[in-house]
Amino acid sequence: MIRSLIPALVLTCAPPASLLAQEVAAKPFQLDRCEEFVLKSQQCGEYRIMVSLPEGKPPEGGHAITYVLDGDELFPVVTSVLRLQAGTGKLSKHNGITPGIVVGIGYGGESRRDLDYTLPSPAGPPETYRNGKPYPPREGGGAEKFFAFLDTELRPVIEKKYAVNRERQTLMGNGYGGLFALHVLFTHTDAFQSYIASSPSVWWNNRYLLQEEAAFAERVAKSPVKARLVMTAGSLEQSLTRIEAAWPEDEREEHRLKITRRKMVDNTRELAWRLEALRGHGLSSEYRIFEGESHKSVVPMAISHALPFAFPPP
């Protein structure tokens, strides 16, 4: 008898069909107060430009602004973390972050970062596999052309469309993007007031960047600058993670050779130590190594750490 009542009870307790959630057609998700457009460079091709705007009217003098490389991947992260940390007010009561503009520079298709973010330099000995064979060649050395696009084509468009404070501009890059950020600091110091280089690829082309660093240090010692720099890296960028240690032997040892040779952590730390000596000549720099983080996992932490640096109080 009890069993025969169960189906009836289920039917009695079931909500009417009209009260059930109705599925609607899905549509692409978009972040609020964000827009994008395609900008065609005269010499570098097309770029996908993404812009995040803060709430409310701009402050006197305009908003602080950060240009983010690898924008296809990093723009949504930087935008979301900035809004979380800054809140909706004029100045976050928790950590002193001022809301501002984020500009992501992406490709919207096949990436050209190998070309755009690497330095014009003589080709050095190539990296090799364990068997001695060289890595496949990649087209590189386009950093100066890309900087010209950023400085003379993109920035005028951004400054015409939005209220930008030209005295509060930051360049942010990760990996090759961090390499490019350091290149701009060393060779076009006044282009930005602040630079963020997370996991910078100092190793690229046999550490050619260090030649630019030496020339920069010599110049700054004679003629002080006014610039700020923060560098970060993950402690596991130079050693195997738990997952990598379990890879098949050939793949694991090939990867071990690469990260040991590139010395991401050592290069970042040693560069930071040398640049610290320039503090008395107008360069304010800091660095941080995040324990237990790899080249990929450290990215959100590096962004969160850098945002108070990019969007400080006026």
TrEMBL record:
Signal peptide extent: 1-19
UniProt-listed InterPro entries: AB_hydrolase_fold, Esterase-like, Siderophore_Hydrolase_D
GO terms of molecular function: hydrolase activity, acting on ester bonds
Keyword Nucleotide-binding annotated: no
Highest taxon listed in the record's lineage: Bacteria
Similarity section: Belongs to the esterase D family.
Protein name (Swiss-Prot/TrEMBL): Alpha/beta hydrolase
Organism listed in the record: Luteolibacter luteus
